[in-house]
Design goal:
heterodimer, A: mainly alpha, globular, B: Chloramphenicol Acetyltransferase, 2 domains, five-stranded mixed β-sheet, 12 helices, 15 strands
Chain lengths: 87, 417
């Protein structure tokens, strides 16, 4: 239950950041929203990666920056959890 | 200034076109506004609606239908590109219609960058081409979208601009100036004409997909800018060496799109910031070293909030009187802080696939380049095809050198593995 709660917290923080900094309010952002199809580009992706690094103290290695991993908030959260467990 | 060229296989009615412009002009009077400054605070703003009876925007026709020599068309287009705008009297947008053989035509829209960026210009042109004009999305109540946006040339930073934040931007320029580049403009100043030329190359849809796949393979997901820049810098270095210019660094201003993704296009606004990149000898060993230098500097720019710093710096600059602003810009430029300008605005506006009911054959972007450096490259895609425009001052490169530069960039992009 604790890890579920953490998972939800991470998702919420990422969604909050995306709503504030990257996407217009007209875009509905949920954990399954396809971020690439919603317009993410190289600089917004970098902005998101920097946020994740600062907020969760996790640096995403370049081999993990793929369409699959970056596609949705849920996928990103799974990645953050995977990287945190490895530490 | 900037230019968009639409190639059309048949001609629209000039009367319809002028009517559409009148509708847009009534709806959005900012398109022939005059720049004013606050008496006390000196903040510039658009004097919207004060320019009644203005003849702008002008529509100028050129009948080259009887003349099949492509050189005549090229010269005419260069004359149009180099024709200055009467900004003080509110000429912020201009249209040139060139009628060519076979019943075809080109529509050229030239605009002043203070009014809007390239995405905004595309949106304006799409409105004139009969898209959105009556739709509620472009509500005149919406200040940014509608253009009754009287106060600013650039969108302000998201929180208050402080001098401490702005200083980071100036510090970055000072860092770049520690190893100042020598530009082609400086080396060949005696030969250079105050007249811009350009060339364009294109890639078909298969080649474009191949290039974007190579970009991902070489530079990572969604990072085609790094791939494009590495090709330009590599070949630019070769051009400079061939011309006997050995610069200790290449400094590249690169634009970053600041639009919130998915937002309806704010037309009369500039929604970008510029980051400065420096490439020195040890970055120019091969493609990978250039890409690494680009990525590192981009990450540093984000870590140090340089984009926000640039917006703050612009805010402070707006309070300067015009002559002092011009002096500061000239000082920065004189210090040789740019070798070549590169931009990658991405996909062209899909609503420009037709114009007044006619399918658009091609859609080109022509930037006008700041002097110095007087040379720039812009990448853009339209209908799944990649285009590259090289713009440069006459005398800086011969047409053959410019053509070879582009062909070498093309080859470099296609042979990324």
């Amino acid at each position: 239950m604790n890890s579920n709660f953490m998972h939800i917290q991470i998702e919420e923080k990422i969604i909050d950041f995306l709503k504030k900094e990257i996407y217009d309010e007209s875009i509905h952002l949920g954990k399954h929203t396809n971020l690439i199809e919603s317009g993410m580009d190289s600089f917004s992706l970098l902005s998101l990666l920097m946020f994740i690094e600062k907020k969760f103290n996790v640096r995403i290695p370049s081999e993990e920056i793929t369409e699959t991993r970056m596609k949705s908030v849920q996928n990103l959260t799974d990645l953050i959890n995977d990287l945190t467990k490895k530490k | 200034m900037g230019q968009i060229i639409l190639g059309l296989p048949s001609r629209f009615s000039e009367t319809d076109f002028r009517n559409q412009i009148s509708i847009v002009k009534r709806r959005f009077p900012i398109i022939n506004a005059i720049i004013k400054r606050g008496i006390i605070n000196r903040v510039p703003y658009w004097g919207v609606g004060t320019n009644t009876g203005s003849p702008y925007p002008k529509v100028i026709t050129h009948d080259l239908a009887e003349n099949t020599d492509p050189e005549i068309l090229k010269i005419r287009k260069l004359d149009i590109l180099n024709q200055p705008m009467n900004i003080k009297k509110g000429e912020l947008v201009r249209f040139d219609l060139i009628y060519t053989a076979g019943g075809r035509m080109e529509l050229i829209m030239t605009w002043v960058h203070m009014l809007m960026d390239a995405h905004g210009a595309e949106s304006l042109l799409a409105m004139i081409g009969d898209h959105f004009i009556e739709k509620s999305d472009h509500d005149s109540e919406n200040q940014v979208l509608s253009g009754s946006y009287t106060k600013r040339f650039f969108d302000p930073p998201s929180s208050s601009a402080t001098w401490k934040d702005a200083k980071k931007s100036f510090n970055r320029i000072d860092d770049l100036a520690l190893i100042p580049p020598i530009s082609l403009y400086t080396k060949f100043k005696q030969k250079i004409q105050p007249r811009q030329d350009y060339q364009i190359i294109s890639f078909d849809t298969t080649e474009t997909k191949y290039i974007l796949d190579l970009a991902e393979k070489n530079c990572g997901f969604l990072n085609e800018s790094a791939y494009f820049i590495s090709s330009v810098i590599w070949e630019f270095h070769n051009v400079c060496c061939a011309k006997g210019l050995f610069s200790p660094s290449y400094v590249v201003p690169f634009s970053v799109d600041l639009r919130k993704k998915g937002s309806p296009l704010p037309v009369f606004s500039n929604q970008f910031a510029t980051l400065g990149y420096s490439f020195q000898a040890d970055n120019l060993i091969n493609r990978e070293s250039i890409i690494e230098a680009f990525k590192t500097q981009t990450q540093d720019a984000f870590r140090n909030d340089l984009i926000f710093a640039n917006l703050c710096a612009l805010e402070f600059f707006r309070f300067l009187p015009s002559w002092l602003y011009a002096k500061e810009v000239q000082k920065a430029g004189k210090g040789e802080i740019a070798s070549i300008v590169i931009a990658n605005p991405g996909k062209s506006f899909s609503q420009l696939s037709t114009f007044i009911g006619i399918e658009v054959s091609y859609h080109h972007h022509i930037p006008t380049i700041v002097i110095p450096p007087g040379i720039g490259v812009v990448f853009y895609t339209n209908a799944g095809k990649l285009f590259i425009t090289l713009a440069y001052l006459e005398g800086m490169l011969s047409p053959e050198e410019a053509g070879d530069f582009l062909l070498n960039i093309r080859s470099h992009l296609l042979h990324g593995n």
